[in-house]
Every structure is written in structure tokens, then in C-alpha cells.
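Encode chain A's predicted structure.
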Amino acid sequence: MTATRLCSWLCAFLLGSLCLAASAQPLHLYTEEYPPINFTQNGQPTGLATEVVREIMRRTGQNAPINVVPWARGYQEALVRANTGLFVTMRTSEREPLFKWVGPLTRNVISFYSLTSSYLSLSGLEQARHFDKIAVARGWHSHQRLLAEGFTNLAPVTGPAQMVSMLKRGRVKLIVLDNLSLNTLLTQGDIQADEVQRLFTLTHSDSYIAFSRDTDDALIQHWQRELDAMKADGSFTAIYHKWLPGEPVPSQAPQPTPTTDPL
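Encoded structure for chain A:
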């Protein structure tokens, strides 16, 4: 073997070894308390997105633990840690370059809500600036969006259940929440649906699994193919309607240039 061939063979071997090592890195998955999409029940992760993620792993032959943590922690892990996925994450133009995406999993409408008994009305963002406090989930894009709009009257909390609790106890008059989690959170917070009113829609959005930029492209492509296959064979729809009966099911993944500013 000539020195040139030997050098080429060694380079190819080393490159292959590095790629194999990268793909062999363990997969880390994070989610939060956001029922009925993802949450814990009897100490175990469950929910619509959790079932979808587990089915994708079954189809791809993977078995990674799902860690339920505060949103801000999971978001930070997905920003800096290789082979890390966070679900569900709203895909926005600001976040687009920060992650690699698999989805969509849900379609959400994010709005301002108040107690019906408060007799409040809200016609736009400018009027919302004059309220005493608005409860938002810390690190959600609704929080980021309102900060970018210059809001100084926000009350960030760890998760959506705290927003509902604050609303019920009169600690805030406005919360920002989406239509998919609203009914479950109201039930958990012992609030009847007719006790809360939607005042003003902030935005619409689609949620995805957001993977860190250092995640192998082959994994992203494999997960997206399996999710698309689930949508084609009806298994995704079955899971979706189990948790969200009557809600429209997101279609196959578009190739988006996000124009909305979701949660």
C-alpha cells in the first residue's frame, strides 16, 4: 500500500469513527408540565406529545428517558447540549436558527384570558399594557414576545398551572395561554370553563420537537420520516384525538419560513 493510499484510508477511517462516535452519543429528551400535551401522571411522563415521541423512538429503535423539568431548564439544555430534544416547542422566526426541528405536533391559538366575573374587555396589545400584572409562563415565546413589545407589567411563573391559580385567586386579572391546554388546566385548577373568557388573540403557532444544533442530521431526518409515516398510517391521528378530541390534526411537515410569534 502506498503512503498516499494509506493516508487516505486512515483519514476515511478516522472520519467514520468520529461520525460513529457522534451518532452513538446518548439522546437526551426534555419536556414540561403542559397538560394534556405533555405532563406527569403518577410520577411518569404522559400526554399527547409524549406518546408520539415514544412511538417515534419505538420505530427508530431508540429508548431515551424523558425528563420533565421547568421549561427554562429544558430550553437551555436544548440550546447547549448535543443530541438533546425539547418538546413541545413553538417554532418561530427567532428560534428557527437555534434548533433543528421535527414536527409539527400541534397547532395552537394563544390568547389573553380573564375571569368572566371581571367583565374586562381587551381590544389589543396597547390596552393590555395598562393592566397591573399579566401572568405568563417564564421562557415561553408569549413571554419573550411581550418582552420584545416592551411590556413591563408581566408576572413570569414556572408553568401554566400557576397562571390559572393566580387568576382564580385574584392575584392577576390577565393570563396568556393557548386553547389546547386551557380546559385541562381549568379542570385541574377547579375552575369551570364558563368562568373564564377569551379576550384577545395574540397569535397562532405550531409546536415541534426542537433538537439542539449539534444533533446528528441523520437522526432529525429519521424522526421526521417516522412522524410523517405516523400521520400517513393513522396512528398519529389516533393519539391526537385521544388527547384532543375534535381538534384539527396538523398536516405533514411544511418547509416553513415562520411568520408568527407563538408561545
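The two ends are 60 Å apart (CA to CA).
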